[in-house]
Amino acid sequence: MRRSALVSLAAVIGPLLASGGSGSEARRAPEPVLSVQPAADCVTAFTEPVTQPLPGYPRLLLVTDLSNDSVQDLVATTDPDGGGGGSVAVLLGNGSGFGAPASTFVGGNPRALSDGDFNSDGRRDVVVSTSALSNDAGSVTVLFGNGAGGFSSSLTRAAGTNPFGVIAGDFSQDGHDDIIVSSESSNPSTVLLLQGDGAGNFGPLVALQSGLRPKEFAAGDFNGDGRRDLAVVTADDRFDLEGFVELRLANAAGGFDAPALFKVGWQPDDGIAADFNEDGRLDLVVANLDATVSVLLGNGAGSFAPQIVIPTEASGGSLEVADFDGDGHLDLASENIDVLLGDGSGGFARLRRFHPSSIDVRAADVNADGRLDLVSGVPTTPPSIAVMYGRCATPTDLSLEMTESRDPVLAGHDVDYVFRITNHGPEGAAMIGHFTFSSRTTHGPQIYPVVPSQGSCGYTVGDRGFTVNYTCNFGSLAATAVATVNVKASANSTGGMSVTASLEMDNPHVDPNPADNSAEETTTFVFVGGGLFNLGTTPDGAAMLSWNGGGAQGGFLIGRWAGGTTTVFPQNGIPLPREATSFVDPQPIAGALNCYSLAPLGDGGQPYGRSHLMCMVPGSASPSNMLQDFAVHGSAGGFQFTWSSPGGQTGYVVFTHPLDGSAPSHHFIPPDRTVFTADSQSACHSVGPLDGSTVRGHSSVLCVIPGFSTLYP
User: Fold this and answer.
1) What is the distance between the alpha carbons of residues 274 and 321, in angstroms, rounded to a whole number?
2) Do 218 and 26 contact (CB within 8 A), yes or no?
3) Contacts of 121 (CB under 8 A, 6+ apart)
4) Three-state DSSP class for 516?
5) Interval 76-122: pLDDT, tens
């Protein structure tokens, strides 16, 4: 990718990067220092993009002073046909913008861009790494600046295969600028050094072997010894492009020690070195393809603390560092112009995304108004660059609150989310909300139609169906007004569902307090015992309850309703243990309808719901009852009555007595069947074996009341 010459707040980071020589590194500090100086009530923002045509599709951008007039110029690598044959376009700064582009053909596919003074004439030169169109053969081309914004000559050297990153600086400690380039596709992958002699010539390639895939570079003095060290942003092909930084400390011999590895995000793209926590030690920030930024805080001795992961709206791409809001702390801009404001301790808060489709991002004071502007490439037809000028935003204070109706939730049941967006003013603003539901249950989340109080919502599905992304365009929300979004979701199996929500406003509005513009929750879907609930009788006629175990319950309670009295078991107030699967009622109320339901409890004692309601009449079996194991089983599919064959029967008769007072009925069952499925009415049932047309007694009376369970959706 590219390397710019800009760093704001040079007074803060300049001493850290100073290591002798005239070379540039990941971000060289120019003079004068560019930093926003806003009014006290100014909230930093940027204008809508102002575009300027390019002669080809933009790939990489570099801001530097090619014309030696203390006005920053723009260098862009371009691809005229969208598929190769690259050029370098120079757009000279004029104090109000950029002039028309002038192109120099370099050929191949431009991969990275940096600058330095390779012939010691005090003029900025440009170096481009390219790969051939027909194969992966790599090269670097040095374009020697003429001091007037053009190039006087060029030099091309072979550089491995499929080079990706390039950086210039005095790495050999001889006072002359060198070039380092990554050779991404060679086996093994290597980092290549071309040592400059200060006269525009370079020595033979020196290979620094890397076991990983090197991509980009950042440089600076990471251990305080006055030498320029090298941080290599890499991905590990062996482990699904897991990201690392290889830190190579410079040694006294003009080379580098063996690298130390530091973990960053997945498939990192770019890295940048600066003192983000203002402790006088150099830190590193890396942009990753998983839409995160990794912050590695340096200890000043050549090592970093474990990464701090910050989410962004940009998936990888380039990074730029500057003090955009003039508060004395370094900020970040990532590709797609997602601006993150630094707090001086290594933390960042997202300001907002200003341009959703851009390539590369550079900071410069393009119109010389003392404010930093953002420059990016726009890969549209016709291709162009876009300048977003720094300005004071219209402050509008929004807040986002999210509530969930329950947590945990039984698998298969619904949970309701309410998102409440409040505009605290002072002005109205148009806004968009982003709502993401990600589940690792069997089939992903099920989201019912999303209903906003104003505007409309659309959705996309990703991650093989495990993620649903909703974008809601609310239109304009007046000051002091409130908008809501109601979402009903469910998951059909156990697991967690994470929900994230964020807001963004249209230009020129910016929230001065963006920390409350997002929210997140994780809802847990659980399975509990008690869904399969059974009621039978013991040989002496007592009620015997059993149920399926397992699940997330912390215990069980049993409720009995009989003779107008409600009793909760166990009566000592201590729930049955989580592993319990049966219970015998020690004292059923004789002559009354004894009804039972089971309630699984959470670890905190909260009920998850209740089972089916099933009843029995103690002592209702005939004296000649031959079916001691008559039982009813409740499940999601309804109720079934079962028994064991006593032997010798010619069939069975099931007696049904509806509880609504309607006429009783009976059903004949073949002798080889011992199961009866009840219909959906509330009724009591008993069964007796047949000897021809004679009923040989009957079982206890068991009753079912449908619609009582809350353990099923």
Assistant:
1) 8
2) yes
3) 147
4) helix
5) 999 865 555 789 999 999 999 999 999 999 988 888 999 999 999 99
CA dihedral over 672, 674, 680, 686, signed as positive or negative: positive
| Residue whose pair of structure tokens reads 């509330």 in the numeric block | 682
- Backbone Cα Rg of the chain: 36
Residue carrying the six token digits 């069997």? 442
pLDDT of residue 301: 96
C-beta atoms surrounding 593 within 10 Å: 17
Cα separations in angstroms, 42 against 322, 364, 371, 429: 17, 19, 12, 17
- Per-residue tokens: 285: 């920030």
Whether residue 537 is predicted with pLDDT greater than 90 in this model: the reply is no
Cis peptide before 445 (omega within 30 of 0): no
Per-position DSSP letters for 279-294, written without gaps between them: SSS-EEEEEETTTEEE
Three-class HEC string of 348-376:
EEEEEECCCCCEEEEEECCCCCCCCEEEE
SS3 of residue 15 by DSSP: helix
The whole-angstrom separation of Cα 117 and Cα 177 is 6
User: What is the Cα–Cα distance from 266 to 184, expressed in whole angstroms?
Assistant: 17
Q: In Å, what is the CA distance from 181 to each residue of 146, 159, 167, 192, 215?
A: 24, 7, 7, 5, 9
* Number of helices (H), then strands (E), in the chain: 1, 58
Give the helix ranges, DSSP H, for 198-313. Answer: none
Block residue for tokens 């929230």:
511
Count other C-beta atoms under 10 Å from residue 571's C-beta: 9
Chain centroid to CA 308: 14
The C-alpha atoms of residue 326 and residue 9 are separated, in whole angstroms, by 9
CA distance 615 to 597: 9
Lowest mean pLDDT among 32-41, 476-485, 701-710: 32-41
Indicate the pairing of strand 518-526 with strand 409-410: parallel
For residue 57, which of 381, 387, 318 has the smallest C-alpha distance? 381
- Residue 129 has a pLDDT of 92
